[in-house]
Amino acid sequence: MIGLLEALALAFAPLALGTWVAVALFAPSEAGGGEPQRRLAVARAWLLAPLWLPLLLLASAMAPDLAAAFLRSADHCLTTGVGHHHHLCFLHPPHGAEGPVGWMIALAVLVPVTALLGLALRRAGDEWRLARALVAVSRPSELGADVRLLDRDDPIALTVGWWRPTVLLSEGLLLRLSARGREVVLAHERAHVARGDCRMASLERLAAAILPRIVARPLIAQIDLAREQACDAVAAQRAGGALAVATTLAEVLRLGIQAPPIGVSVASSALEARVAHLLNPAPRSWGWRLSFAALGLAVVAAGMGPGHVAIEHLVTLLLH
Amino acid sequence: MPQLRISDLALGELERGVLDVLWDEGPLAPQAVHERVGAPRGISVNTVSSALKRLADKGLLQRDKVSHAYVYRAVVGRAELQRQLIEGVAAQFGDAGGAGLLAAFVDLAEVRGEATLRRLEQMIAERLHEAER
């Protein structure tokens, strides 16, 4: 079984590296049109491609043998032959390579990735500890157990936390915002809580850590914008419609100009794009979901068919 | 206001309790802090004194001698600490395009001024005008 693990690790490394290069070269720097859910899914697919694409290809490449084992169908190895050393099969696992070259090639890719992820995890840990301290030094509010107050005059409304997110509103914002505006802001922030946005955003930052910054930043910006627009849409449903949300965005912006805000760079919310989308929302469509399903099926089919043999040849080529 | 290091901003539960008391009641001696924070938690005076010293080392408290005893007072107010914590959270992944853990209603760094505001208000006014017709 060590031989199979070695073959998988060795196959994963060039597949991940190839996907990483493809993402670096071809990832879109600007979001296309359409509804936020579509843009969110597309940007996330690009951002996470170095992880999901090689894993899906490898899992699909193992599928013929898994099917043979569990469904008792024709033994894949009997039809494709067990003659070569590095075939991907649970039933007839390949022998390990004689030297350490297989693991060395895999580690050459996995070590820098692990190091980058380790650094990003450390920052995520610091972020989590600081956010916890921030919630702890805020005050309880009468707006609900999930809403706490910041003793600040500048207009601040944010949501923090991974497992039990908390909405933090500044007293300056509550004092100067209209009643409808307060309702909108709360509905928007509670939409972040309900969607688990902070958790997802942290995972996306981790994924972004292994990509070149020039590629990751636009993808993160597209995701952040789509996420804000999705929460704007929820707020519009619950608190007086799209115009009320657009007006509140302008209202908070005016407060920010009057009371110079602290230097928070949180989400590239792209205010104008948000207001434009609220006033002229893109029509909902299901076409992009079908495209995604077709792409997934194509990857699985490629992995089960030509990908299976290609990966075996790749492993053999690298080891000899 | 002193700019604190990020590692100093992450406070333990006892440290936050101590700060809460000093923010609400002003300068206090270690014994008085213990009565309010330590005793209800079943914590010794020494543990509370250690927390006070740690907070002073971090630059959040200052120790003054009043007659023969020391009293501690908060150097950084609650609002200032909140500001530094928000900036600390935002700074963690700032180079990746913003914090992960923090979702804001309006990106305050994006507030560019009156021109942006006027464009937004014009878009809204046009839509209101259309709705009224």
Describe the structure.
Chain A is mainly alpha-helical and 320 residues long. Chain A is 69% helix and 5% strand. Chain A is built from 11 helices and 4 strands, in the order ααααββββααααααα. In chain A, strand 3 and strand 4 form a beta hairpin. The two termini of chain A are 20 Å apart. Chain B is mainly alpha-helical and 133 residues long. Chain B folds into 2 domains: 69 residues, Winged helix-like DNA-binding domain superfamily/Winged helix DNA-binding domain (Arc Repressor Mutant, subunit A, Orthogonal Bundle); 40 residues, no CATH class. Chain B has 6 helices and 3 strands. In chain B, strands 1-2 form a two-stranded antiparallel sheet. The N and C termini of chain B lie far apart (54 Å). In chain B, 37% of the residues are buried. The chains are: A mainly alpha (320), B mainly alpha (133). Chains A and B meet through helix 4, strand 3, helix 6, helix 7 and helix 8 of A and helix 1, helix 2, helix 5, strand 3 and helix 6 of B.
Could you give the topology of this structure?
The complex is a heterodimer of chains A (320) and B (133).
Chain A: H1 2-26, H2 36-71, H3 76-80, H4 101-136, E1 139-140, E2 147-150, E3 157-160, E4 166-170, H5 171-176, H6 179-195, H7 197-208, H8 213-238, H9 242-258, H10 271-279, H11 287-319
Helix pairs in contact in A: 1-2, 1-4, 2-8, 2-11, 4-7, 6-8, 6-9, 7-8, 8-9, 8-10, 9-10
Chain B: H1 6-9, H2 13-25, H3 30-41, H4 45-58, E1 61-66, E2 69-74, H5 78-92, E3 102-104, H6 114-132
Antiparallel strand pairs in B: 1-2
Q: What is the helix tally of chain B?
A: 6
Which shape of chain B, going by the Cα principal axes? elongated
Helix content of chain A: 55-70%
Q: Biggest sheet of chain B: strands, sense, closure?
A: 2 strands, antiparallel
Low-confidence stretches of chain A at least 5 residues in length (pLDDT < 50)? Answer: 260-269
In CATH terms, what is the fold-level topology of the largest domain in chain B? Arc Repressor Mutant, subunit A
| Uncertain stretches of 5 or more adjacent residues of chain B | none
Query: What multimeric state do the chains show?
Result: heterodimer
Record field, number of beta strands of chain A: 4
